[in-house]
From TrEMBL:
The lineage of its organism: Bacteria, Bacillati, Actinomycetota, Actinomycetes, Kitasatosporales. Residues 2-92 form the Pyrroline-5-carboxylate reductase catalytic N-terminal domain. This is Pyrroline-5-carboxylate reductase catalytic N-terminal domain-containing protein. Keywords: Oxidoreductase. Pfam families: F420_oxidored (PF03807).
Length: 221
């Protein structure tokens, strides 16, 4: 798969490197040519260029820029993004007195929904934002004997299919979580996870499977 990356930061290089290891072709795009060249070298990408060049590179485009900039960039590149799947890994958060808080309004408002509104002819998926970027530097992320589950919300069936295919290629398990109306839940979960890590806690200890309890009975949904 050909993947264009918009951004040159830690998530761009971590995910780009994971995709190169999985056999995909990656092109890194940035506003600063030197930064894009450095990011491409770190990921082993096929090349680098400007943002529009990266957006036009393949069928998938990673949005790895600050969350508040992502919808504006999507609007700027909307004609190029048409017909492509935009992978939104942004986490909209700001520091607060009690820890990180989402900067979106809640409900169905999310950066992913704003990107979709700005580039209505693109398929958008909210994905890859839950984990710290260091997880994506692992060859094939797996924990306690199971592949990493990657939750995502997608706005179109085509975006969902491509996202699932990409996740599988990385040695992980796709975890569909609904349409873009539920993307705000993933964004809030990511902000919560960051706050737990900053406080020295372990998010993985919060959600044990009920099946692990002695004598547990599955009562269904």
């Amino acid at each position: 798969m050909r993947i264009g990356i918009l951004g040159t930061g830690s998530m761009a290089t971590a995910l780009g490197g994971a995709w190169v290891r999985a056999g995909h072709q990656v092109l890194v795009g940035g506003r600063n040519a030197a930064a894009a060249a450095r990011a491409a070298a770190r990921t082993g990408a096929a090349g680098h260029g400007g943002l529009a060049e990266a957006a036009a590179y393949g069928e998938a485009v990673l949005m790895a820029v600050p969350a508040d900039s992502a919808p504006r960039l999507a609007r700027e590149l909307a004609p190029v993004l048409a017909g492509r799947t935009v992978l939104d890994c942004t986490v909209p958060m700001a520091a607060g007195p009690d820890g990180p808080s989402p900067t979106t309004a809640g409900g169905t408002d999310s950066v992913a929904a704003r990107i979709s509104a700005a580039a209505p002819d693109a398929g958008v998926a909210k994905v890859f934002g839950i984990c710290h970027e260091s997880i994506w530097t692992l060859p094939r992320p797996a924990f306690e004997g199971a592949p990493l589950a990657v939750p995502f919300c997608a706005g179109t069936p085509a975006a969902a299919a491509l996202t699932g295919e990409l996740i599988v290629s990385m040695g992980c398990s796709p975890l569909p979580c609904g349409g873009l109306s539920r993307a705000a839940l993933l964004e809030s979960a990511a902000v919560l996870a960051v706050g737990v890590w900053w406080s020295g806690g372990e998010v993985r200890h919060v959600f044990p499977s009920p099946a692990l309890a002695p004598g547990a009975v599955d009562d269904g949904p």
